[in-house]
From TrEMBL:
It comes from Yinghuangia soli. This is Nuclear transport factor 2 family protein. It holds the Pfam family SnoaL_4. InterPro entries: NTF2-like_dom_sf, SnoaL-like. Residues 25-154 form the SnoaL-like domain.
Amino acid sequence: MPAFVPNTNALSADLDSELVHDVVRELRDRAEIADALLRFGLGVDERDPDVFTSAFTPDAVFDFRPVAERLGLEIPVMDGFDAILAVHFNDGWNLDTTHSVTNVRIAVDGDEARLTAIVEAQHLPKHDHSRHLLLKNRYDVELVRTGSGWAMRHLLVKNVWFTGEPKVLAGE
């Protein structure tokens, strides 16, 4: 039997410009969708409100209640960008944090998308790194395409496990 030799002319004919455009758009969308979640984490960790704000739509909803309840804390749903910003960038925020994102899954449907990910979030009091709260959370995110790229419209965070002191998150 003769060796298989691919017909490169047939291959290039199959890759019409419309298909290439669609594939590139899908890949770009997926990268930008994941980047919205990464901007959230980086904005918090670097204390950069500009990066942080770019991750959300103005009418975004951030629901951290499942995590808070598991930790024995009360944190209401943050409804709207101002409420989200007020919680994460208030004068009482006295934490050093790192957010690491993994297991990202994305489903794109036109100008809307869903993303799930596992996020490990380390929280340490700025002046006492001997204490900590390490959270392993599942993020369920709804995103929309905006004039400046993809942004999170709804973020629900559920805790998988944690270790450390829940009071660290409350600033105690």
